[in-house]
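User: Hi! I have a protein structure encoded as tokens and I'd like to know what sequence might fold into it. I'm fairly new to this, so please keep things simple.
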């Protein structure tokens, strides 16, 4: 129970920190230059711009984000219960709170390239932290999940892409073509950074080796590289010969040695090399206690 409490506290801290980083990008970069990257915060930026002539300074970002999320979470709670809402409610509330607290300082100083790149990095890191905590910030993520529950032949990701695409088009109508194109750049950067944050920055290589000298190759890989090797039973469908396929995971630097060893032992061997991310276990990343 003690460990569970520590994990819960850590997850909520990640949400708190992640939403703060996201809010910096939204308030200090996207809103200042008119980049609409989707989500309820994208709608908030559009509404703020459209209402500047009606309300002094326009409708605040935090208020729009909060008001849009309230009916979504109420409906989600009624339909799926408390467990579905969970930490995501805290994430949505914290994002609105951060948007209220953080002052509107133009961090990119009108530079669209800097805005799209650093805005994407900030949003990607922040969103990655929130996802690591097993939550989201509500918005179109939650709406997409609710829609998907009634339209099963579409995935949540597909529905979310459609919703965010419509919001980006609204940004095109309000702010014009140039900010929208840079908003697309920011979306790409956000996706890459958040994926890397979740999957791990230390990528490795995996090798599948088909050779008639599997014992010798395996021994050299284990002795010279100090890496484990797994033998997989296989059957050639053309020759119908039984084979032992070697499988090993090594660092990016070691893959060159792997190919040299295989070539030295069996020049006719068949080698498949692929990228892998976040390898957990002895010799790579240790299992985290928090996640």
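Assistant: Happy to help. Inverse folding works backwards from shape to sequence: for each of the 291 positions I chose a residue that suits the local structure. Here it is:
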């Amino acid at each position: 129970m003690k460990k569970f409490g520590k994990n819960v506290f850590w997850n909520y801290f990640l949400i708190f920190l992640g939403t703060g980083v996201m809010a910096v990008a939204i308030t200090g970069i996207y809103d200042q230059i008119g980049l609409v990257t989707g989500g309820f915060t994208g709608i908030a930026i559009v509404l703020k711009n459209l209402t500047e002539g009606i309300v002094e300074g326009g409708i605040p970002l935090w208020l729009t984000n909060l008001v849009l999320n309230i009916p979504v979470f109420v409906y989600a709670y009624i339909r799926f219960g408390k467990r579905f809402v969970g930490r995501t409610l805290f994430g949505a509330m914290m994002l609105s709170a951060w948007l209220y607290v953080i002052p509107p300082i133009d961090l990119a100083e009108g530079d669209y390239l800097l805005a799209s790149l650093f805005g994407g990095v900030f949003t990607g890191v922040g969103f990655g932290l929130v996802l690591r905590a097993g939550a989201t910030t509500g918005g179109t993520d939650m709406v997409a999940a609710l829609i998907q529950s009634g339209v099963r032949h579409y995935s949540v990701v597909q529905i979310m892409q459609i919703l965010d695409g419509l919001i980006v088009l609204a940004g095109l109508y309000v702010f014009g073509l140039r900010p929208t194109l840079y908003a697309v750049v920011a979306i790409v950067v956000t996706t890459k950074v958040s994926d890397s944050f979740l999957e791990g920055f230390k990528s490795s290589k995996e090798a599948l080796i088909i050779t008639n000298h599997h014992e010798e190759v395996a021994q050299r890989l284990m002795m010279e590289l100090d890496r484990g090797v797994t033998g997989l039973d296989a059957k050639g469908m053309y020759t119908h010969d039984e084979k032992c396929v070697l499988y090993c995971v090594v660092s990016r630097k070691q893959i060159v040695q792997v190919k040299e060893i295989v070539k030295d032992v069996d020049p006719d061997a068949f080698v498949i090399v692929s990228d892998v991310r976040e390898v957990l276990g002895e010799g790579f990343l240790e299992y985290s206690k928090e996640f």
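A useful reference point when you look it over: The longest strand covers residues 242-250. Feel free to ask if any position seems puzzling.
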